[in-house]
Amino acid sequence: MNSRACETERIMIPRLRDMTSGARAILGIVTRKWALTGPRSVALAISDVCDTNCVMCWCHSPLLHRESDLPNAPKAGPSSGRQRFMDTAVFETIIRESRALGTFRVVLCGYGDPALHPQFDRMLELLGRLDMEPYVLTNGLSVDEKRARLWAASPAHFRFSVHAGDIDTWLRVHPSGAARQFERLSRLIKSLAAAGRPRVSMLHVIHKANFRSVPAMVDHARELGVKDVLFRPVRADGELAQVVLDQEEEAELRVEIQRCLQLAAGYGIRTNLHEYLVNNLYIRSGLVHTWSLYRKIPCYLGWIYAEFDREGTMTPCLNSKIVMGRIGEQRLRDMWLSPRYWAFRRDGRSLPLRSEPVEGCECRACCMAKYNVNVYNLLHLKSFDHESA
Question: What pLDDT is stored for residue 382 in this prediction?
């Protein structure tokens, strides 16, 4: 078998595993009686440390008056008073046990930048050896030329949090940033997009500092050869409420998005701008409102997804405080098939019949709503619009 054939096989096997896992998950959802596979995706919060300060960030924004609690450098030390990175032994246990259950996609994330984890590149290597697909949410600022070469050979999906299409906007969004960072990041993204093996996309959270720059963001993606761009409205309240668009700015943004829909289509760039216009991703005035959605559709996350914090504590999703157990104390399989997880699945499936959210979950303000909409669409062979349903 020649090298090109070998490479094709390495790419195709995970995709087959992904389809098999998906089919088994759907069968479990339909029967309501079995979990025939593990979670299709697991999210691991491997780092709380960040090397920038995006103005709209929940954890590291300069608008938050908690500077003493935030890292001043991309490293952890004894003086930090708490663990800032996931232990590598915990990481490997989660990965191997979830892989044995059929998990395909692994989201590497956290309250900082996952790429700052001291063992991040070894984590990517392990996921590649196990034929699992890493999904990395990163600002890319820690990637030098050596790391860029490693990433270019990875089958990962790198989604770069950029939030700007030009230097001036970049500096408004990143008060501690520098023009050279934007330029270096742009070169990195362009090189990875040209490499062909990793999947590369860009993320822009829209708020007061950048909402007039959506056309520049689309142009920037075209310049870098990126074909997948995700836009999200900012979620913010309290001290961060000042970054939320007012009604006039929202109206101005909608006009701009209409123009950018045609612009992106002309460039052959996939975006979610139409969805943004239709339902604003269930966010109004910076706050998530999803209870009306769950009066109509169930929560399916108990069959397809799981979260792990830095210590390896397992919860059903980011919005849930229901602790299923902790890696090292229990096997992942035992937690996934536990009575507590089955109770969560039953409660989630019955949401349209309930008068209250699932206890321990933020069903009224669920940031995982789109996952459930996607599954509902698949099961019902229809397009579902949250606002008009």
Answer: 63
